[in-house]
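Record filed below.
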Amino acid sequence: MVGKFVCGAVLAVAVLTAAAPDAVSQASRELPGRRSVGAQRRSAPPAVSAQTAARVADALAQRIDYYWHRGDYDSIAFLCSQIVQLDPYDVETWANYAWILWAGLDREDEAMRVLKRGLSLNPHRYELYYEVAFLLYQQRRYSEAAQYLEKGLKYPAPPLAWNLYAHALEKGGNPKAAADLWRRMQKKFPDFELSQVNLDRLKRKGLIE
């Protein structure tokens, strides 16, 4: 769901990008709020409806596949940045935006800023807590990852999110807490076989009884 109105300048860049693949580099130099030297002051562009903004966001999302198959990660990141401006509650695009930054463009610091911005706008869902934690886990910042997951798991989440929390606890030096969590998961997610697999692994290592 998008907000009731969206800045017309954002929409203009979005339409340009969706209509012409080669226009992304030009559009990226003309982001909303930027004006060329000597540009004359103009009246504010009219707001657009949420329905129109949603259609533009969908069109932008379709263009991502075009750039993906060409390995143009900068353009994908730009499109994602426009989609989340149009729909700040699209947690999947926030996650994809950050992923392409750190996995495709090696811009981990920027990816973390993107995730935290998305999280600030969507604090009552687990997804972006998980994404922040996953990136922290990749950076071997296990205790910080566990802290984010502890907050995120207050909201409905799948077993993989709980599993990452347990691994973060273990890697952070608390295998007993990890084991307790995997035991809880056996009751909460009885079909999730990795809980027992990890408990068996901890026993073999002598980390739990």
